[in-house]
Amino acid sequence: MSNLRLCIQKGGRLSEKSLGLLNQCGVSVSNGGSLKAEARHFPLEVLFLRDDDIPQAVQDGVADAGILGENVVLESGKKIDVVEKLGFGRCRLSLAVRREESYDDTAWFEGKKIATTYPRIVESYLREKGVSAAIEKINGSVEIAPSIGLADGICDIVSTGSTLLSNGLKEVETILRSEAVLVKHPSLDPEKDALLRDLVFRIQSVLKASEFKYILLNAPNEALETIKQELPGMKSPTILPLAKEGWSSLHSVIREDDFWERIGRLKDLGAEGILVCPIEKMIL
Ligand code: PRP
Ligand code: ZN
Description:
Low-confidence stretches: none
Bound molecules: 1-O-pyrophosphono-5-O-phosphono-alpha-D-ribofuranose, zinc ion
CATH class of the largest domain: Alpha Beta
Order of helices and strands: EHEEHEHEEEHEEHEEHEHEEHE
């Protein structure tokens, strides 16, 4: 049986989290600094590439799939399929200028020069805004371009914002928001397609699990009915009698996003000894 070949970023923002996700899926890969690694427990081979080289590799079938920023996929214009958003590596692609510039709107860029690794995206953004500016494509350290006189402004990825800050730049327009995605070659052979579907199934169960928490609490029996309404769970909560007369333990799952509000209400309803645990995988 042939291995599925997956490429991920070598070094950089997404590399460790990509390996972490694979690990959570039961696919362990050691990154010993080499360009290629074979996974344990799954027929998968990982290629470590520069993120900008991943779309081409997947389009040409050098790799079957890849994990990279959506921003890089868009910029590449390659024929590859986005299979799944992965919920990590969230960032924005933004225009930035020197902190001391007085900036009102995109008209500021008229006749100016912008340094970027994302010329196609910037070009179409400026066209839409009716602004004409020169675009200078550079492949690394875009943030230093204004200070060395190479450009008036830049367009680059902003995540925490610390790169802009330490280079005396300020973010003035957000062009798009991006996160890590799983991409694949548009026509995989059936064997590899089945492997990829298995991997996607695992990824989805890990991503789903991260939206929920497992909750256990004790409550007096007379409060159970109302507490159950707050914790519908996957099908319905589990209720077990406590050794203490008149009390029960209730187990359920709860959404991460409205978690604190619900906890407050549960306490008001008489819940005690509330325990909340992470869920590793969730298969619905
Ligand atoms: C981006 C960008 C900045 C940094 C911004 O690089 O080029 O260097 O991240 O992050 P911050 O706002 O947290 O400081 P990326 O990780 O995409 O790597 P690459 O451009 O070298 O591929
Ligand atoms: Zn890159």
